Amino acid sequence: MKAPEQPKLLILDYFGDLVDPRVDRTKLHRLDSIIFITLCAIISGEDSWDGIASFGEAKKEWLSSLVDIPFGIPSSDTFRRVSKN
Prior knowledge:
By secondary structure, the chain is mainly α. The chain contains 4 helices and no strands. It has helices spanning about 30-45, 50-60, 60-65, 75-85. It is globular, with a radius of gyration of 15 Å. The N and C termini lie far apart (about 50 Å).
């Protein structure tokens, strides 16, 4: 007898209910995408906002298969601003 399939729990599921504190006119990039890119970069050893943005650019193709980034990788300033909220 085959074991029942377990539902896949995606890391983005944890952030789906977060309230985005940014002003609407400044929401070019999705909050969950920013958080996901940040987490991946930190896990990979990045420890600065410039490093996180560089990681995103280097892994853009892979990241775009996982998260919605129609406007490209956010800038280091965007990562910094989101982290302050």
